[in-house]
Amino acid sequence: MILHKGETLFLQGDSGPLFHLRSGLLKIVRIHPDGSQILVNIIVPDEIIPHHSLISPNPYFGTATALVTCEVDMIPAAAWYRELEQHPDRYRSIALQLQDKLRMMQQRIDQLTSIAPADKLRKLQAWFEHYISPAVLTDVLTQDEIGQFIGMRRETINRLLRAQKEC
Known about the structure:
This protein has helices at residues 77-86, 90-113, 117-132, 137-140, 143-150, 154-166, and strands spanning 2-3, 8-10, 18-23, 26-31, 37-43, 48-49, 63-66, 70-75. By secondary structure, the chain is of the alpha+beta class. It is built from 6 helices and 8 strands, in the order E-E-E-E-E-E-E-E-H-H-H-H-H-H. The strands form 2 sheets. A 4-stranded antiparallel sheet has the order 1-8-3-6. Strands 2-7-4-5 form a 4-stranded antiparallel sheet. A hairpin with a 5-residue loop joins strand 4 and strand 5. 45% of the residues lie in helices and 22% in strands. Helix 2 packs antiparallel against helix 3.
């Protein structure tokens, strides 16, 4: 299936199939009881999501929305889990997928633990360039989303982006 920028793949709290992202980028947004939202993850091509349901079913942790046009395959949950039961060797491929995601999250932790705000933004831009080039980070995420993703206020992001343009 094709999802266009802004279209929703699934909603937080719902249950359903798994998905393989063939191309594009998805964002996972967590919605809190007070209605506030926070960007918690970016899904890149070749990931199967939701990660926390690769071995056993669980409701969706957040809402998945296309950041750019995406090609996504739906994987029926019953078929996925039946396949695992019939072919236990598939657990190794799941472990490798989760290992790759863990390594990606380690890079994110590196971004978040930089002391200087400019370094946080620069590391995020470099990470994103790997997945969205030739587009730039601000073509895909709003300043508010960038701030959520690296733990800074939108105003700080705005100031840093202006300073980058001046250099």
